[in-house]
Amino acid sequence: MLESLARLTHRRRRWVLGAAAVFAVLAVVWGTQVFGALKGGGFEDPHSESARATALINERIGPPAGDLVVLYESASRTVDDPAFRDAVTGTLGRLPRDQVRGVTTFWSTGSPALVSRDRHATYVAVRLAGADVPARVTTYEKVRDRFAAPGLTTLRGGTVAVNSQLHDQTSKDLARAEMISMPILLVLLVVIFGSVVSALLPLTIGGVAILGAFTVLRLITMTTDVSTFAINIITMLGLGLAIDYSLFVVTRFREELGRTDSEREALTRTMATAGRTVAFSGVTVAIAFGGLLLFPQMFLRSMGLGGIAVVLVDMVAALTVLPALLAVLGRRVDALRVLPRRRADGAERGPWFRLAHSVMRRPVAYAVGVTIVLLALGAPFLGIRFGSVDVRALPSGAEGRTVATTLDRDFAHGALSPIDVVVAGPVSRPQTDAYVNRLRGVPGVTAAAIADTGRDATHIAVRFGADPQSGDARDLVRRIRSLPAPGAAYVGGETAQLVDLLSSLGHVLPWAALFVGAVTFALLFAALGSVLLPLKALLMNVLSLSAAFGVMVWGFQDGHLAGVLGFTSTGTVEASQPVLILAVAFGLSMDYELFLLSRIREEWQRTRDNTAAVAAGLQSTGRIITNAALLLAIVIAAFTTSGISFIKLIGVGLLVAVLVDATLVRALLVPATMRLLGRANWWLPAPLRRLHARVALRESG
User: Any idea where the SSD domain is (predicted)?
Assistant: First the structure.
């Protein structure tokens, strides 16, 4: 099949490139408008009790005033000064009433909770128009500059403002990541590919993939909400996988050009071998992201949708646009060479060949040693403590974070993180008051009061002294949920969302892992014609992922990388991030696994000598995998410069996973274990052999 596609692409190469150019123009004009259609947040389970509590507040009571908090401060005046009061009330009085439905101030309520202890600051709770948080973020962005009061310091915080600030920070981070990584990538691409022309190929494929994924994502936003953070995964993987696939295909194309005078035949053979591996790799990585679609959280589903889109567009571009470019270039793929052509090492002289034989002479020592190192790196993961995203995800000094810090430090009752209890149904006021009194008596509760009422619903704000991310706060949520209530009571708020998130992830993760593992095993079986190699590949992935997770906990939860990377450790790891890193790192690991094992399989079919096949396969792919990992690491490392702490965490986790996988696992552990298994690597019972003959995508002989 791929041979036929290669011949067709060679014959219609200008048509293929013309169609790609038209698609790219469409993507630039229409697809890039996806940025305006993306949503913030999405870390909660929309089917949970806490989500139901939020929905009831929105539907029956109205948008909560605490969604937007505006802090007003003065170094010289207090809230008792008429000039302070007039500056605030005058500013609030000029706000458009169709967008700002109401404000709660110290002067309208007399509540001491709205004033700082030194009385030099007050906060205003603003009720914005909009049925949900994304809609209120849109409203906020229209009016955010109209809250500034003359003569006072004005800062905006709360859920709506923080979501908007996270979106803005993401855009800035993407621009910074590109500015940092692109010059380094350009230099390394020229050095690794050896010529300017060949170095431009992965950038071309990456550009097509990123623009194509934006277009696909724009289509998806017409049917469902998509998180703004999907852009990060598209940008990271779009270029990273384009480099992987281009390096693998171009290297094989050069090899084939050395074996034949026919450029067409060289391209056909390249796509039948390297193209086959790219096809399997793309589908396998997409399946890894497919596991994220099983989760109800918009953040994880969006990462899955973005990942699938960019991987499949990357794969299609590598199987069509890249061979069309190679068909046009032919031997001119090495034009504008800046480095002398590498001498083709013979199998017995190559450094990777010698490394493979060194490992296979002492397979037990290498296998045990590398396993111990990986388990040691992963040990901190045993002490992981899960948390949720809060304002500390923003960089120090960010507006929303400053507001939260000031309220926690200078105001009473932890204004921004109460437990929200919503009582629904026809409940009398005496019953509600009795319930509020019972809530006040729950151990750990510092205050409880009716915040608002609406159509058959009452919103009760429960204050507490513990950190909202702590185990004590989560236990408090469970105690409140077990308390008898008049009518139907739903418990929400930041801590309740964390409790529900952990419960949701715990229920879905085993099924997602089973789905990804089973489908990946089936794909690897089809690609490799072996039973043991897919099982071994899955085990290798578990080991390399354990190392990434251990470093993640050590660096972020325990705070050892806080000074280097510039973030505030919360003492927890946001619960959805390990799931995301698991999917991405699993897919990338399988990418390298297929590159190596496909070439080993090719040598095995030719020689039927397991040891020689492993050595020759590592010699053929060792430099490619190492260079691909280095280039991908540059792309990923740029994301550690993000101002958002959990984007830094994703960057570090994936960086460790890629580097560990391309070095310790592929260069040492794979050859050692394949030497120990010997011919059993290729064991295939007769019934499975017949099945493989039917499902395998074959390369030409």
Answer: 209-328
